[in-house]
Amino acid sequence: MSATSTKGRPLPPIIDVQDLSKIYRTQKRLPGIGGAIQGLFNRQFTEVRAVDGVSFSIGEGELVGFLGPNGAGKTTTLKMLAGILYPTTGTVQVMGFTPWERKNEYRRQFALVMGQKNQLWWDLPAQESLYLNKEIYGVPDAEYQEVMDEMTELLQVKKLMGIMVRELSLGERMKFELIASLLHRPRVLFLDEPTIGLDVVAQKNIREFIKDYNRRTKTTILLTSHYMNDIQALCDRVVVINHGKKIFDGRLDDVVEKFSQSKLVTVSFKDGLVPLEKLGSLGEVVGQSGAKAVLRVARDKVKQASNELLNQFDVDDINIEEVPIEEVIEKVFAGTAHE
Amino acid sequence: MSEALAKKPFFHKYWTILATRTQEDMAYRANYVFGAVFRFLPLVTTIFLWWAIYQSRQQSGSPLSIRGMSFEDMIAYYAYMYIARGFSSIPGTMNDISKDIKDGLLNRYLIRPMDYFWYQVCYRLAHKIVFWNVALFTFPPIFFLMRQFFTHVPSVWELLGFVASLVIAFAIGMIFTFSIGLLAFWFLEISTFLFVIMMIEFFLSGHLIPLNLMPASMQPFLNASPFGYEGYWPCMILMGKVPVDQLPRLLGIGVLWVFVFYGVSRVLWKMGLKRYSAVGG
């Protein structure tokens, strides 16, 4: 899919990934000490295809969610985009740079935030680490002051600037981590699990900040997260990968349509009794409480099923919904959903 | 570093790393005080040991100096060694670097516009600054107590040569430990190996016994080795055992070693990074 803005207007891609593959070669070791000794003389390798022919492009200012279960190849892809890893095959262009050449010019224009792998210095107040980053990136004083004022205000950490990093909570540290990565106003931002391990309130704070930041600065953001809440709140577009392969690229809403073969029909009955035995023929009963029942009905049978319900029973109310996206994604990852 | 230099972005960047790390290290100055005092404890044993050796030589009628070193010289050597090692030994560096590599922490340096080597140099230099800030108070009283052993008054040239040799000592110690730490790119578990390397370095630097006491057959090798610059040569210069006219040559070879080590570390870094970037991180 080519990058398009929400209005459908094509934007020039700022990130262009073509046929990207990464094969890890790891040594196979037989168990036990005998295996260890054998491994010294006769090395056997297994190949792991962490990323397998992935292509996508992202337009300037987009906020794209990168979805996949653990080990799907998300982080490996991000690392290649950030220039930490060389690919086995394929090309990547970010702002016209090949990331793994690690040119300073490139490194001054992007940031990678990895949840919990911090760049803050433990035994100093956060402001010292921020100042250090200012110098490393060569941010002019005036700009630094401006960004700091703005960010510390937005993230409500102004009062925490002078406190030792080791005494901050995980959420507070994550906020400073974000500030440290945004000081040089990167054009491209890679966020790897920015909310991991945070409590619900902190997650929400960070999420809102990211959304607002993207809207205001038009910074291109590629984000991975385990929390569907993050993705739902932030991303219009998602790229889904599994076993190293891209399996979906498009609007988040379309994920459901593509991968979910059924809808949920909720009916409440006037007489207060659910005729369970008769509902089985219309669809799978997945829930029941009081006078209500929830049926999972195949997409193409929904219309027919609702007609039958209305005709055969004394129905008080009927409601047809998509299966929650979380559930769909879960099934996609588990490999039980089919295209 | 002068103000003018600090204004240039390159220096400014690393100057800030140095200043920030110094600040952080200051939090541990109590540790440094203990370290700077109690490190002298083994010296007491050393004094008694050599006293017994020289005593027995006197009783058996052997000449009182061993390879040109009197009892006083011998003790002065060990005392000066504390100064030299205060520059050349960079504790923790190998382990920190190998940990950065193994745990993938290197990533946070690779994505930023800076050089990991110079980052480490600044980081360790900061440690030295804090250490010497403390040692400037703890060393003099101990040296004062030992004043009877310092029989040679160094000339200005010897003092200058000594200072230059300390800079070389730091450079060699720094680049050597950095390079060894980089071996973690290839080997997952290197702590035993690091221990062996440290022992060899300890021995070849003259920390254990002055290198001129080693068998004559080993002398050419020991004189050519870079490790002597980490301890032996600075001590000998300060004790006036190196003729002043030979200082430029001695120090020149030391500087040469610095460049050789630097070159090797650069190659190791490039190769290692290639491997790191290929297999993971």
Q: What's the layout of helices and strands?
A:
The complex is a heterodimer of chains A (339) and B (281).
Chain A: E1 13-28, H1 32-41, E2 44-59, E3 63-67, H2 74-81, E4 89-94, H3 104-107, E5 110-114, H4 126-137, H5 141-154, H6 170-182, E6 188-192, H7 200-217, E7 220-224, H8 228-234, E8 237-242, E9 245-251, H9 252-259, E10 262-269, H10 276-279, E11 284-289, E12 292-298, H11 302-312, E13 315-322, H12 325-334
Parallel strand pairs in A: 3-7, 3-8, 5-6, 6-7
Antiparallel strand pairs in A: 1-2, 1-4, 8-9, 10-12, 10-13, 11-12
Chain B: H1 3-7, H2 9-26, H3 29-38, H4 41-60, H5 71-88, H6 93-102, H7 107-110, H8 116-145, H9 156-181, H10 191-204, H11 219-224, H12 232-238, H13 247-279
Helix pairs in contact in B: 2-8, 3-8, 4-5, 5-9, 5-12, 6-9, 9-12, 9-13
Give an overview of the whole structure.
The complex is a heterodimer of chains A (339) and B (281). With 339 residues, chain A is an alpha/beta fold. Helix content of chain A is 35%, strand content 29%. Chain A has 12 helices and 13 strands. In chain A, the strands form 3 sheets. A 6-stranded mixed beta sheet of chain A has the order 5-6-7-3-8-9, sandwiched between helices. Chain A has a 4-stranded antiparallel beta sheet with strand order 11-12-10-13, with helices on one face. Chain B has one domain (3-279). Residues 1-6 of chain B have low confidence and may be disordered. Chain A binds chain B through residues 24-26, 79, 82-86, 100, 102, 104, 107-108, 110-112, 114, 117-119, 121-124, 128-129, 131-133, 135-138, and chain B through 9, 12-13, 15-17, 20-21, 23-24, 27, 104-105, 107-108, 110-114, 274, 277-281.
